[in-house]
Here is the input.
Amino acid sequence: MANTYEYLDDRLGLSDLKALADKKTVPLHRGSYWYYWGGISLFCFIVQAVTGVLLLVYYRPGPEAYESVRQITNEIHFGWLIRSAHNWAANIFLFSTFVHMFSVFFMKAYRQPREFGWWSGIALLLLGMLFGFSGYLLPMDELAYFATKVGLEIPNAIPLIGPPIANLLRGGLEVSEFTVQRFFALHAVVLPALFLPLLMFHLYLVQRHGNALPVSEEAKPAAERKSIPFFPNFLAKDLAMWLITLNVIALMASLFPWQLGPPADLLKPAPLGIKPEWYFLSQFQTLKVIGQWIPGYAGEVFGMSLFTLGLVLWFLIPVFDTRSAKGNRARMATYFGIFVLTVLGLTTLWGYLAAA
Here is the structure.
């Protein structure tokens, strides 16, 4: 073992990595459990990548999309389990990423020098939502087809550039087999090519700047702050959380396998109750309510302008609430976060309970 370590150390610089791991520590306080959510998101993405490659072996985009998914679900050994694990991991990934983002926000971990960590994290969340949206259509069953039609109304409502973007995604004026091929290319090639470098950049920033302290802990003298070594203490706990997450995914995939509905019929009217996935329900419900107050194109423009303004403000919060900001500015940032979390939660629940 010593000779093997010497051989690898001479060529790969393992001693430098070990020195870095020994030096790194993680703050220990009442809110330390929030640090695990970023790791849970990373683990879910790894599960999606592995199961996605396995599904890629049998999936056929285009006219045979539905039949290939039917074969995966009903004929390929454990195909149903891999498909269910892929879908459940995707939903848990987005949920844990939302939790991670809000925990970072309320810890004010976006302040100097972590601004780029905040910005890259938001970009990763948006790409993750695109992953979910593009993958949802691929089975081309009835629910996926009509939910995608509804979901494409969101970008279609963007003034001027919205309709061309929606047509580009659809490959025409309607969702069809060409849409499936484009969504597959987006899901399996374009988005991974954008996501992976950004993820590496985000992880590099986390390692460079370490875990942020809450404001209450920063106020304490350095001698009173507690921490634990990253290796092996925190890493062991992080891996335990990964194991728990794997068990949750396995249980959900086994007890609640992802269903495949009847094949999409492009000539049939949409069934009642069709809605986009839960992570788009807030935008969907808000646009629907605004459309009732301000009918027509004006309502669509107002709704998308409101979303754009909110996203820009959320993105620029490190510029507004800087490390030197005190008093009203810091409190306003916190109130803004509470407002955004409340609106997202209420409109998502409203959209889930409301009739389509």
